[in-house]
Amino acid sequence: MTEPKTMGSKMTQLKIAESNMTESEMADHGALWRQEWADAQKIKGPGLKGGSIFYRNIEEELDLARQTGGGLPLHLPSHTIDFSTCDVLGLGHTGALREEFLKELEANPGFPITAGGSRLCDGTNRYHDNLEREIAELVGVESALVVHSGYTANQAIWSTVPRSGDVLVYDELMHATALAGMKVSLALEQKPFRHNDVDHFIEILEELKENSPLIKAGKRCVIIGVESYYSMDGDICPLREMIDAAKDIFPNGNAQFIVDEAHSFGCMGPNGGLGFVKEQGLEDEVAVIMITLGKALAAAGACILSNNTIRSLLINQAKVMICSVAPSFPLSAAGRAGFRVMRSEKAQQAREYLHDLTLFYLDTLTSNPMYKKANAKGLLRMPVHEDGDWHEVPVTHIVPIWCKPKHAYYLSFHLVRDGINGTPIVFPVVARGEDRVRIFLHAHNTYEEVEFLVKSICSWAEEMMEIEASGDKNRLPTAARLAYALVEKNKEENNGTAAVHAPL
Fold first, then answer.
1. pLDDT of residue 499
2. Side by side, which strands form the sheet with 302-306?
3. Which residues are 308's β-sheet partners?
4. CA 307 to CA 486: how far, in whole Å?
């Protein structure tokens, strides 16, 4: 591994914290990442007293997060091993998508950069039409509607598809973009059910049938929202059980499913990775499927799969589409290239390798004596895999490590120092007490890299257990100590303005 290039001033700021490090600890890839994080924690509200109340109010709001280390910077890449990006099949990492994308550009000389307008106002062109027809035929649906992003897709679906008098029933861990669409939906009654809890799901449906005469009579609908692979937990929706239950309770067909396949499409399923719903044989039981093109396909944008009735509704009433310029040619061409590479033999090999690599990671981590000790003490855990049955049941490439509160940052600092881009996920993205480092495995990761990841995680766990055994509640793990040293330096340069605290 090579040391990252960083600005001399940033390296100077680290000298105090690094003075006590051993030679082995100096192999540090996290200096830039820590500096970016520390700079994002600078308290700014007090410095604006007497200034614009508009900006001061905003900075004071941001200071609330900064005081607990929750200021979020945009990190520049400084890792040497990728365990975080969404390029799970490695189509971007290996250059496979770039090669196919350049072929697509060459096949369309004189292509326009801009779409020129919204889909309804001269922004739809022949390329859009051909691409959507290709996707629809490939997946086996009437309509494929390409949009800019997963957010755009979920906003369009959930703000538009439910009608007045319908009821939304959704998994409590549905993505924030879907919840944002629900907030402006015509369906005012919205009921979450406990995550992947089929019994609680059935209980809610039966209550609705009992208490909603129009739904019981089949005159209004229950719109059910789930994800195939849940992006923060890495577990899988029991979709078949839910569909069977909904059909039993509502035999008139007025319980309809919308499935977010952002993290499963391309990673699994028949005919070149056509996704979870297709693999389950449930495509005729699902009204709408949302897929993204920026994860397994390594491109950009998203696509709404449905019948033509839903397509017409979205085109006519989804404001996020009506009021947006259509996807540009480069975005559409990247998506088309992604679909082609996704169906290649190399992509199928990547899917099979990724599955085997995931099993290897779970085997290697959980068999490590240090992980076992840390898990017993509650320092590290993987709730989805507590049963140890990953060789008997389907698994996903999303394998988060859950930590004690505050420790997700500490583990991330440690991983980043080792050149690994582990991402801390804390409240309010996840519930309080469910802090974690989200880890994505990829087809471009090697078995040696996975072993190194496990070694890094377990070395951090060993250090944390030593700290806890010492009883010193003010002692920080090494990598976190480097990060908070920068915060203290910023504090001194800011004339002692209060900054982030780091209790264990």
1. 54
2. 143-147, 302-306, 288-292, 255-260, 222-227, 167-171, 189-193
3. none
4. 55
Q: How confident is the model at residue 334 (pLDDT cuts 50, 70, 90)?
A: very high
Cβ neighbours of 49 (radius 10 Å): 7
Q: Which residue has the tokens 């297709």?
A: 278
Q: In angstroms, rounded to a whole number, what is the distance separating the alpha carbons of residues 97 and 406?
A: 38
Predicted confidence (pLDDT) at residue 26 exceeds the cutoff of 90:
no
Return the residue matching tokens 């709404």. 304
Contacts of residue 423, Cβ cutoff 8 Å, sequence gap at least 6: 84, 412, 437, 438
DSSP letter assigned to residue 80: S
Structure tokens at 41: 């924690």
Q: Tokens at residue 108, please? A: 């369309």
- How far apart are the C-alpha atoms of 149 and 276, rounded to whole Å? 20
In angstroms, rounded to a whole number, what is the distance separating the alpha carbons of residues 269 and 282?
12
Say how many CA atoms lie within 13 Å of 312 toward its Cβ: 4
Identity of residue 155? Q
3-state secondary structure at position 210: helix
Q: Tell me the per-residue pLDDT of 90-121, one tens digit each, with 9 for 90 and over.
A: 999 999 999 999 999 999 999 999 899 999 99
Structure tokens at 408: 């997700």
Q: Which helix (H) or strand (E) segment is 436 a member of?
A: strand 436-438
On whether the CB atoms of residues 186 and 162 are closer than 8 A, the answer is yes
Instruction: Please state, in angstroms and rounded to a whole number, the distance separating the CA atoms of residues 185 and 115.
Output: 28
